[in-house]
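Protocol step 4 of 6: structure prediction from sequence.
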Amino acid sequence: MDVYSASVKFLDKNHISLPKLGRLRVSGSHRRIIDNKDDIRIGTVTISKDTADRYFVSMQLGSDTPFVKKLAKTNSQVGVDLNTENFLTDSFGKVVANPRSSRTIKGKIAKAQKVLSRRQRRAKKEKRSLRDSKNYQKQRVLVAKLHDRVRNQRNNFLNHVTTALINNHDLVVVENLRSKNMLKNHALAMSISDVGWRSFLQKLDYKANLYNRTVISVNPKNTTQTCYACGFIMGTDGTDKLTLKDREWTCPNCHEHHIRDWNAAKNILAKGLDKLEKPKNLAKAK
């Protein structure tokens, strides 16, 4: 193991030497990098502190060999339908459950924030600085840790899901969702913010670029309302549009029975494949 810079050096897997701070105990993902490579050079080092009073060391690393191994081709393509009932359903019919990260400790957070507000009011009433109020600071850290737990659970879940999609498929097709607009629907706002769609799509794009996979976003219009088998669109020819309560439905045109989200995922994949084919067809026409 030889991971160092002029002023920063890993002493072993659990300790690092930093200028002015000396020898510090560390934990985190650095072990995985150190175990796999012998030619890492440390560039810029940044030390930060979060709201839960924890310190982090971020490093810019250099190496003569790639940090990421290339993934083998899978010859697999998948469409992904994101929803609030389940987190996602893919075009193979696989369903990933919604972990509902924030709702699991919603009560604890609300209770802790009430205590924090009460201590803030008391400090102001006694004309004490919040910085000097020990009880307030203890409660502030507690609230920050609860929020951090939710954030970590969500990130861990999203990383597992996105990594699985990238590892198992050459092409992933997703909906181009405008979560900001959807958050205006107060009935769905909490569910949408809890699942972390935006973060999911960002992670998926990042990993696709990293591992040379393809991610395509398509217009979600009518992906739910369209029958994958015959192309009939619900809400036309005197039929009613599907609502959020309609989890399964039968096409009035071809009588194919659909699971709502699975059907949508198939339509999303079809749109993605069509989007890939269009540039090729235009090139041939020229």
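Step 5 (inspection) to follow. Residues 9-63 form one domain.
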